[in-house]
Specification:
Elements: H1 13-23, H2 27-47, H3 49-56, H4 58-69, E1 77-79, E2 82-84, H5 86-116, H6 119-124, H7 130-158, H8 168-192, H9 199-216, H10 228-234, H11 238-250, H12 266-287
Antiparallel strand pairs: 1-2
Helix pairs in contact: 2-7, 4-5, 4-7, 5-7, 5-8, 5-9, 5-11, 7-8, 8-11, 8-12, 11-12
Subcellular location: Cell membrane; Membrane
Protein name: Transport permease protein
Pfam families: ABC2_membrane
Length: about 290
């Protein structure tokens, strides 16, 4: 990220002293500050009931509803002794939605609110390194996303009796898609946080976009049944490919027959997530400011 933006302040006075202090910070201090910020971010996250319900528990609740509602529906596909049921398909969908909501929605609203209510301005007056601030956000995102995924997988296996893959290769696929998605959505969350002009408008601006992207990316509806023009739009965006990668990791191999092109395309998953991570990083670096302007 860019250096601290102190508005119109010059290099003298308090702002100048902070800038000098920042330049003298050692790498070890940055990591210690980052660890402290992770702790602070986690405490703040756990104290916000809206974040716990609409970000952490929301995918688990939705999966439970969908899995219960479609438990008696005939399998979507039966081939070579393998079945693909509706609850099967909603497990990778909710895993993808969980990382997406935690990164883009929660992180975007958090940073926009902190800018609007003056939290970032107060942090700008301290020697806290910019990198430590963002490492704190990413650390909180990593820990809460891992806990959410573990809870979702536990509910799927213990409550609904879904079987998880036994092939180590599938688990490796799940791991790299999960962490690539986390990085991608984290930087995109920082980028979209620059759009809202106030704390009150943060949710109103970000939530509708997040909801629409989930519908057109095959989270709530099977991707293959969407119109071609919606598929073309969604294929330009990362969420549809995260869902595809999650399905490749968790569903029986015959489930590829339900995909567009009847194949798993993990190379494109990696390319799209990598490209969006770079785009998000560049946009975030160019637009992030400690202090709101105008």
């Amino acid at each position: 990220m860019s250096a601290v933006d102190t508005g119109e302040a010059g290099p003298t006075g308090a702002d100048g002293r902070v800038a000098v202090a920042r330049r003298g910070i050692r790498p070890g201090h940055t990591l210690r500050c980052a660890a402290d910020r992770v702790r602070v971010e986690l405490l703040q996250y756990l104290r916000r009931s809206d974040a716990l319900v609409f970000t952490f528990l929301f995918p688990v609740l939705l999966f439970s509803i969908f899995a219960s509602a479609f438990s008696d529906v005939p399998p979507l596909l039966t081939m070579d002794g393998q079945e693909v049921t509706q609850p099967h398909t909603y497990l990778p969908a909710m895993l993808a939605a969980g990382v997406f909501l935690s990164g883009v929605q929660n992180l975007g609203i958090e940073i926009a609110t902190e800018r609007a209510n003056g939290t970032l301005q107060r942090l700008a007056a301290t020697p806290l390194p910019v990198l430590s601030y963002f490492l704190g956000k990413v650390g909180q995102l990593l820990l809460t996303s891992l806990a959410q995924a573990a809870l979702l997988l536990t509910v799927a296996t213990t409550v609904f009796g879904l079987e998880l893959p036994t092939d180590p290769g599938r688990w490796f696929t799940l791991a790299w898609v999960f962490f690539a998605a986390l990085v991608c959505f984290a930087v995109l969350g920082v980028a979209v946080a620059q759009i809202p002009r106030s704390a009150a408008s943060a949710s109103a601006v970000i939530l509708p976009v997040v909801l629409v992207l989930q519908f057109i990316s095959g989270i709530y509806l099977p991707f293959a049944i969407l119109p071609d023009w919606l598929q073309s739009i969604a294929n330009l965006l990362p969420l549809a490919w995260v869902g595809h990668g999650m399905r490749a990791a968790l569903l029986p191999d015959v489930a590829r027959q339900l995909e567009v092109g009847a194949m798993w395309d993990l190379q494109t998953v990696a390319l799209v997530l990598g490209a969006w991570a770079v785009v998000g990083t560049v946009v975030a670096a160019l637009t992030f400011r400690w202090i709101k302007r105008g």
